[in-house]
Write a structure and sequence with these properties.
The chain is α/β, with parallel strands linked by helices and 370 residues long. It has 12 helices and 12 strands. It binds nicotinamide-adenine-dinucleotide (NAD).
Length: 370
């Protein structure tokens, strides 16, 4: 049996609480001989700052570099609001993304039937929704230079951010999107603003060429990013895979996220380039939510986003897609039976589960299906 090395970085706030529920599933899979996971754990974010004055230590960076998959909880909290900018909790996550070369961020928006009424949109618009947003993560306006605020000396200041994309950055994210579409409903929608941005013109040109030369069997459509935002709330089921840049991806994935109800339900994956020898991509899996200091320590955190992030690791890195399907089915079954943490509760289905109870119930479903 192939052995896989998982590196846990639970982080701060509810991070360790939701990670505990993944660890429970990993241990069970190990004892059943379903997989051989070797696990190690490190510090990231505020907890790392408290321990070594850095948002992640060199030792833990090195461990993340050799792991098959990094499982990341969440970082940050009011305790670290005043720490110096370069060692603030988020710096640990940004360093991981940069040093592991994680240029592709995958955010699925899946609406479980039992939660369709929790969405702010009508049930028929979201029920059965299953779309995937592929966001470019290491380029674009968040990183482009110059990035400055200049004093103009006349009582005015000028802020500058620079949107930059090179051909190779667009090619590689397009390939990730087309490859994923082939495993799904075979359709990619590429979102940019070619009508007003030069990077949009280049994006459109490169995606079109990669499609023509390498993926003619996949359906490709181009959509302006602002129209895409509108379409996402009008009729999101028209999409399968949406590929877009860092800035638009940030916004569009948050819109898509809210289609499905709560932040506590949303997993994500960040992938790097395939290794020349092993073909495996460096990867980090994390829930979309933050460290939720307002509920940390109360047992109210929903562990599903973290558990589903582990499900993405099973699918995209660990070659255990059938177990990813079983884990998704276990989550769906638990929700269908009416189990609810506070964030996904409603009048009809009040909160009746703590973080641990939700994690245990999902594991029980998984065991029953084994
Ligand atoms: P947040 O995602 O932590 O919380 C937003 C709201 O959603 C809160 O009311 C919270 O209680 C709720 N929530 C989030 N996750 C939940 C879960 N699993 N179950 C139930 N409810 C959940 O965002 P925030 O409050 O803006 O930020 C809190 C801290 O987290 C800040 O320090 C921020 O910088 C950090 N943050 C970190 C990440 C990350 O680690 N990737 C992402 C976003 C925010």
């Amino acid at each position: 049996m192939t052995s896989y090395n998982l590196f846990y970085l639970p982080g701060d706030g509810i991070g360790p609480e939701v990670m505990a529920e993944v660890k429970r599933i990993v241990s069970w899979m190990n004892t059943q001989g379903i997989a051989k996971f070797e696990t190690d754990e490190g510090l990231a974010g505020g907890s790392a700052y408290d321990a070594h004055g850095k948002a992640i230590s060199e030792e833990h960076m090195a461990k993340a570099q050799v792991a098959d998959a990094v499982l990341f909880g969440a970082v940050g909290g009011p305790k670290w609001d005043k720490v110096p900018y370069d060692v603030r909790p988020e710096a640990g996550l940004l360093r991981l993304r940069k040093d592991l070369g994680l240029f592709a961020n995958l955010r699925p928006a899946i609406c479980y039937p039992a939660l369709a009424d929790a969405s702010s949109l009508k049930r028929n618009v979201v029920e059965g929704l299953d779309i995937l947003i592929v966001r470019e993560l290491t380029g674009g306006v968040y990183f482009g230079e110059p990035k400055t605020i200049t004093d103009l000396g006349n009582g005015q200041k000028r802020g500058i951010d620079t949107q930059v994309y090179d051909t190779f950055e667009i090619e590689r994210i397009a390939r990730v999107a087309f490859d994923l579409a082939k495993t799904r409903r075979n359709k990619v929608s590429s979102a940019e603003k070619r009508n007003v941005m030069k990077t949009g013109v280049l994006w459109n040109e490169v995606v079109t060429r990669v499609h023509k030369e390498e993926y003619p069997q996949v359906t490709l459509e181009h959509v302006l990013a602002d129209n895409c935002a509108m379409q996402l709330v009008r009729w999101p089921k028209q999409y399968d895979v949406i590929v877009t840049d860092n800035l638009f991806g940030d916004v569009l994935s948050d819109v898509a996220a809210m289609l499905t109800g709560s932040l506590g339900m949303l997993p994500s994956a960040s992938l790097g380039a395939p290794d020349a020898k092993t073909k495996r991509r460096k990867s980090l899996y994390e829930p979309v939510h933050g460290s939720a200091p307002d509920i940390a320590g109360t047992g109210a955190a929903n562990p599903i986003a973290m558990i589903a992030s582990f499900g993405m690791a099973l699918r995209y890195t660990l070659g255990l897609g059938d177990w990813a399907d079983r884990l998704d089915a276990a989550i769906s079954a638990v929700l269908a039976k009416g189990l609810r943490t506070k964030d996904i509760a409603s009048e009809a289905q009040p909160a009746n589960a703590t973080t641990t109870q939700m994690g245990e119930a999902i594991l029980k479903e998984l065991q029953a299906a084994a």
